[in-house]
Amino acid sequence: MEIRSTTDQDLDVFVDTVHAAFGRLPETPTEAGGLWWSAIEMERNLLAVTADGRPVGTAGAYSFELTLPGDVVVPAAGVTAVGVLPTHRRQGVLSAMMRRQLTDLRAAGEFLSVLLATEALIYRRFGYGPATYTRRLTVQRHQAAFAVPRAGGDTTGSVELLRRADCGEILEEVYDRYRRAQPGALSRPHRWWASGAGQPPVASTPRHVAVHRAADGVPNGYASYSIGDGGTLTVDETVATDDAAFTALARFLLGHDLVGRVVFKHVPPDHPLRWQLADFRAGEVGDDTDWLWVRLLDVPRALTARGWSADGELVLDVEDPFLGESDRYLLTVRDGTAGCVATDREPDLSFDVSDLGSVYLGGTTPSALVRAGHVRVHRPGAAALADALFRTERSPHCLHWF
To answer: Where in the numbering of this chain does the N-acetyltransferase domain appear (predicted)?
Structure first.
């Protein structure tokens, strides 16, 4: 078997193979576009081919930017389209592709890769850990009254209702401002919006879009939604550059006529919307799940890239079983900036690289993984210090599907 890079000439073979791996048939292209492979980067993809030339596996990557704690924006490879034909599973094809991909990413100078895991059991063994989480929030209209805010709040601004076809530039611009200040958010390159490659509202699928404008008229939030049979209003995503804009959009959606319930598909676990309702139980939580998984390819570069909220010093043992590596680092944080160097000092904590990926964005506490039996503590107080160091002011959240 050979693992080789693909070219533009391999597009049809790549698309057919990944669809077959997932037991699906390729969609018929439409004039409006919207097919997920419209934004694919063939120069970053891999194809597993048998000795007689038959394609049996695929793995791809997108070129994204990821926002880290501290409003730091860095490049990140978005791993996608990973699949092996049912006839060749459990024969080492997937492991060979993932090892080749990680090697190629490192050789290209990348220090982070991310993915959305179709199955949670697969990607830990390749060094990925769940790092952001999302949930669905359902509110019945008859329970949707807002509480009177005791601390006041900004009520300036306005909401304008537009069609998806008429506001593509607004969506792209607002999302880009939002994602640069939201830890865990990924960029949406222009070609995604231009070709409609993704799920709504990136796709050009007809949608209603509520756009929030600040007092100066500048758009600073939007909500993409549709109303289905039974009077359910489903919100694809609500994006806002501040809490006041999100609240205004939520009020608009929850006050919509001829609707029995409103479903917010992607809400951060710590979002204040439930607290804003007069009836706290009115917000029914569902689909509480992982979303973005993170893999550190270069631990020192990754740890020194992000911002930090406390000062301190830790010695970390990091095991990377998939790549057969074991290293020890001294992490020193002062005034929000970290240094990370190799050391032979005794360790304070021992991490698997997948667990380090889980705590990297601040969405998982090291002490939770200690209690779960994943992270070993070698010095009293080390877990509490790690919690303080990795803690973020704003929980990481990712909306982008890829």
So the answer is: 1-189
